Amino acid sequence: MSVTSCEKLENSKVALTVAVDAEAFEAAINKAYLKLRGKMNIPGFRPGKAPRKIIEHMYGAEIFYEEAVNIVLPDAYEDAVKEKELQVVGYPQVELESAGKDGVTFKCTVAVYPDVKLGQYKGLEAPRAEVKVMAADVNARLKEMAERNSRLVSVERAVKKGDTANIDFEGFDNGVAFDGGKGENYDLTIGSGSFVPGFEEQLIGMKSGEEKDIDITFPEDYTAELAGKAVVFHVKVNEVKVKEAPALDDEFAKDVSEFDTLKELKADLKKKITEERKSAAQRAFEDLLMDKVADGIEADIPDDMVDMQAQRMVDNLKQQLASQGIPFDQYMKITGGNEESVRAEAKEPARRQVRMDLAIDAIIKAEKLDASDDEVEAEMKKLAEQYGMELENVKKYLRAEDVKEQVVRQKVIRLVADSAVAVAPAEEKADSAEKKDAE
Q1: Domains in the chain, please, with CATH?
Q2: Which 8-state DSSP code applies to residue 219?
Q3: DSSP states along 344-364
Q4: Residues 233, 213 contacting (CB under 8 angstroms)
Q5: Region 189-218: what's the mean pLDDT?
Q6: Whole-model pTM?
Q7: Does residue 439 surpass a pLDDT of 60?
Q8: If you count Cβ atoms within 10 Å of the first and of the last residue's Cβ in the chain, which end, N or C, has fewer?
Q9: pLDDT tens across 279-304, in order?
Q10: What is the DSSP string of 298-347?
């Protein structure tokens, strides 16, 4: 194999002209003959027993060329890419230039990883929100905690929206009970929308011990047996219950936390909310900075890179749906799309992701960033704690190379953020200006 030319083209593509000598091509022709002879019926010979020369005499010397080219091409192409030290992207377009007793020559046009010129990535400026936690924020979090620790208590009154009604029910289609339409001592929260439309609303006003028939028409998109049918449910209300939230006092603090007083719990909540918001503000700050870095690069990005990233996004969507038990084709029917339309919609996000990846890789090279084994181990321990897993199990599911890549990418983001200048968001500047005017 020899590379007779390596021509750089537009859009980060390279045209490789590769020649395979007569000896190597002859060996490939013989392999092609051995592979295909069993499929050829030659008069006077049993299947697979006809000599190569006889077959070539009958059909021409070129009869095995196509298969022979398919045999030599992969290795020859791979060797050519290695010889020219190309970082290829995607699959090549192959054009056969010549094939004969002197050998074979073909041209491979393939996209390559583009040259990237970094723009500014240090000393950038981006808005970062000032974190403020008010008493109302703490009280809202306390209310959420109280809701989670509330209990249902019986009340002697008619059902209202938001109540939980304990009911017995049975559905009838033309007087005949149907499968799946019966339940006993079922706690139904009125307004939850968990039952057929119209069912919950007709329970409002009923009292404990009361029974009645309610008319329901099933939606057209319901199960085939009941879709669009008008049925009757016989319902009995056994009990009416309401949520009772605990009082927000020291006893509540003791029950839901390690603190003895409500004051201590509030202080801890304020600290946690502050940390959460600072983390969120920092992530948003970093995202804006990295978007600027990605926008600032100069690179002739090949379409193949974008297409491959878009396909990865489609594949990720399929995996997410599968993890939820939703077949991809069913999801397509619901959304009225198809795989091609999903891939087309992914093109622009894919292009942005490719620019981001190119920018990060360029910074890694420029700054000579790397991650030590100890840093990779520390990241794995962090992930194990985060997901409540044993470290050894994390190592089973995650490749060290992938974790190392993530650690290095985090270093890039920290480098960009640590050198950046944070300014007040536009709305904060506006508020500050209004205050000054008022003074």
Answers
A1: 2-113 (3.30.70.1050), 151-244 (3.10.50.40), 265-431 (1.10.3120)
A2: -
A3: HHHHHHHHHHHHHHHHHHHHH
A4: yes
A5: 93
A6: 0.73
A7: no
A8: C
A9: 999 999 999 999 999 999 999 999 99
A10: EE---HHHHHHHHHHHHHHHHHHHHHTT--HHHHHHHHT--HHHHHHHHH
